[in-house]
């Protein structure tokens, strides 16, 4: 049973891509992933204890604390590959029947990984078109990224992308660190320029803030070579409701802007049932975010 529960854990390398394939929200898919992992660990632990007591070779190893999300993620992926190899050797020695589950597991992972790689290559490269470029700048104390993509595509409200800028920092280049960013811009039709807003916290977003502040001080904004995956996420069908009530605090308003733009656009063309939009926006201090001139 532990092998059966391993299959959902190896549906793909990136959760965003698999969630889109299954038509699920990212948070719900991560909950299913964690639940299947918990069940698998419990079943594997019971199996190890029973076999260890039977062979009198039971031992425990303490895990070392991991620092940094990226380090944890890469080690998690490496251990996942090592787990498959270890289970493969264990099963092939004991019996041949459970090998079928490993064949299914590795087959699904290989197909989704190839499909995701093709999707990323298709989005980031186009014949006789410039590579994907990102300009990082600061306006009204808000860090923004203008992303020019080689292939235009239709943006849906509520979607996001995973952005990787290799030259942003040495750690970003070494670990291939990407970050999910919400798409703020929205318009009808296909777009090749996307507007992203960054909420600086730690890690890569802090690096983006440093680049924006440096560009502001030198009055120069050099484009960076960038790569992205997406668009990810599901768009809420808000146009089906007569009244829409929205809540936002601080910079979280950027996640609501695409929906507001779409509702206003569709309302002007009589494409939506929405008649009223109520927005409650909480700020820490008045005038915290001023409208761009």
Explain this structure to me?
This protein is α+β, with helices and mostly antiparallel strands. The chain contains eight helices and nine strands. It has helices at 2-6, 15-22, 26-55, 69-94, 99-124, 170-175, 204-218, 257-268; strands spanning 133-139, 142-154, 160-164, 179-182, 190-198, 224-225, 227-232, 243-249, 276-282. The strands form three sheets. It has a four-stranded antiparallel sheet. The protein has a three-stranded antiparallel sheet with strand order 4-3-7. α2 (15-22) packs across α3. The termini are far apart.
Fraction in helix: 40-55%
Provide the gyration radius in Å: 23 Å
Low-confidence stretches: 55-67
Mean pLDDT: 76
Largest sheet: 4 strands, antiparallel
Mass-distribution shape: globular
Enumerate how many helices there are, as a single number.
8
Percent strand: 15-25%
Name the quaternary structure: single chain
Q: Classify the secondary structure makeup into a structural class.
A: alpha+beta
- Our measurement of the CA-to-CA distance between the termini, rounded to an integer number of angstroms, reads 61 Å
**Order of strands side by side in the largest beta sheet?**
5-2-1-6
Topology as H/E string?
HHHHHEEEHEEHEEEHE
Q: Tell me the total number of β-strands.
A: 9
């Amino acid at each position: 049973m532990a092998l059966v529960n391993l299959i959902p854990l190896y549906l793909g390398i990136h959760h965003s891509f698999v969630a889109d394939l299954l038509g699920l929200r990212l948070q719900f898919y991560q909950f299913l992933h964690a639940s299947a992992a918990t069940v698998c660990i419990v079943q594997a632990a019971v199996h190890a204890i029973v076999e260890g007591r039977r062979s009198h070779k039971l031992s425990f190893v303490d895990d070392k604390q991991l620092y940094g999300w990226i380090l944890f993620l890469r080690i998690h992926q490496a251990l996942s590959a090592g787990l498959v190899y270890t289970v493969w050797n264990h099963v092939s020695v004991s019996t041949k029947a459970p090998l079928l589950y490993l064949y299914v597991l590795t087959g699904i992972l290989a197909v989704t990984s190839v499909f995701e790689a093709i999707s990323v290559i298709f989005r980031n490269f186009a014949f006789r078109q410039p590579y994907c470029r990102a300009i990082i700048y600061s306006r009204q104390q808000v860090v923004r990224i203008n992303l020019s993509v080689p292939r235009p595509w239709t943006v849906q409200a509520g979607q996001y992308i995973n952005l990787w800028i290799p030259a942003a920092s040495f750690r970003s280049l070494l670990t291939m660190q990407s970050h999910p960013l919400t798409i703020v811009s929205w318009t009808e039709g296909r777009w090749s320029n996307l507007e992203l807003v960054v909420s600086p916290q730690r890690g890569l977003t802090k690096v983006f803030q440093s680049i924006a502040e440096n560009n502001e001080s030198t009055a120069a904004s050099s484009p960076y070579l960038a790569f992205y995956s997406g668009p990810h996420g599901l768009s809420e069908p808000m146009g089906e409701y007569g009244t829409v009530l929205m809540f936002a605090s601080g910079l979280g308003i950027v996640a609501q802007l695409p929906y507001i733009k779409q509702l206003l656009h569709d309302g002007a063309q009589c494409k939506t049932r929405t008649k009223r939009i109520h927005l409650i926006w909480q700020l820490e201090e008045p005038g915290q975010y001023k409208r761009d001139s």
